[in-house]
Amino acid sequence: MVQGVSQGYVKVLELVGVGYRAQMQGKDLILNVGYSHPVEIKAEENITFSVEKNTVVKVEGISKEQVGALASNIRSVRPPEPYKGKGIRYQGEYVRRKEGKTGK
Q1: In what residue span(s) does the Large ribosomal subunit protein uL6 alpha-beta domain sit (predicted)?
Q2: What tens digit of pLDDT does each residue of 41-84 get?
């Protein structure tokens, strides 16, 4: 059996950061990730979004390529930064952290 038809493909993204939130507006996804404006992401055909606890976004669909591309577009809105680790990351993704400058 074909996985896309029987189970579908899922990518899970986490929003890490104070005040970073995701919410649904109809079928579209609204992200508040520290910009002066909310970022709206339209749902493509055969792709659905779901939001859990305002910080976990699931992208589901029957095409692995479409799901991965849309999840990558969402992540590119605010990729994780290496100093505090804030941003949008895939679930289970390891973000390599850097040390900041040392004070005098």
Answers
A1: 16-90
A2: 888 888 888 898 888 989 888 888 888 898 898 888 888 889 98
Q: In which band, very low, low, confident or very high, does the pLDDT at 4 lie, cut at 50, 70 and 90?
A: low
What's the predicted TM-score (pTM) here?
A: 0.81
Domain 3-90, CATH: 3.90.930.12
Domain boundaries, the chain: 3-90
CB atoms within 10 A of CB 98: 8
**Residue 88 is encoded by which pair of tokens?**
């949008």
